[in-house]
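#onboarding

Welcome to the new folks! Below is a worked example of what a typical request in this channel looks like: someone posts a single protein sequence, and someone else replies with the predicted structure as tokens. Don't worry about understanding the tokens yet, we'll cover that in week two.

Example request:
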Amino acid sequence: MAAIYSLYIINKSGGLIFYKDYGLQGRMDTNDSLRLASLWHSMHAISQQLSPIQGCSGIELLEADTFDLHCFQSLTGTKFFVVSEPGTQNMENLLKHIYELYTDYVLKNPFYEMEMPIRCELFDINLAQAVQKERVSYLGGR
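Example response:
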């Protein structure tokens, strides 16, 4: 079974700009993925305000019985989050690598409009390779 179930990229306003499902189960419909992205954006923002630690950047890991949700927020406020199997390691490194791919293939694309849905073939290809590499290393480490 794959370690990564899905990937979401949310713009600084809370809008879902990218969603990719990697799970073996059926794909979540568009409305559910939009609701989940909006919910996560809100939870992340609330956690920053409620944290007793000054300068908290929000939730980085949410652990549940059936999944883990790992989050990386860029300096611009764009959030990248991966839903994975419980206990999956090295998701922080994967999220940072996905951010690098995003900056290299999306933000440097002259046809991409900021805060809009991502439609970039080079990003898709390199993202698929990164996730596949992570799956191989995960399965090799089991």
